[in-house]
């Protein structure tokens, strides 16, 4: 398509709300997924640290 102005580009021939809305929804979903991955990674690292600390303590008491 050929747009005569930035307003025409943003309007996308009358479908701008759907086009730009789709981009916004996709961007929000990607950000939420990245935040969820970071949160889960931190949780796994913390649980592994607790597990190995407890394991180390048990090993030291047995020896």
Q: What's the pLDDT, averaged over the residues?
A: 93
Sheet/helix structural class? mainly alpha
Helix content: over 70%
Q: What oligomeric state is this?
A: single chain
Individual helix count = 2
What's the shape?
rod-shaped
Distance between the termini: 76 Å
Q: How would you characterize the largest beta sheet?
A: none
The whole-angstrom Rg is: 25 Å
* H/E element sequence: HH
Give a structural overview.
There is one protein chain. This protein is mostly helical and 63 residues long. The chain has a domain at 29-63. 84% of the residues lie in helices and 0% in strands. The chain contains 2 helices and no strands. The longest helix is centred in the middle third of the chain and has 47 residues, at 16-62. It is rod-shaped, with a radius of gyration of 25 Å.
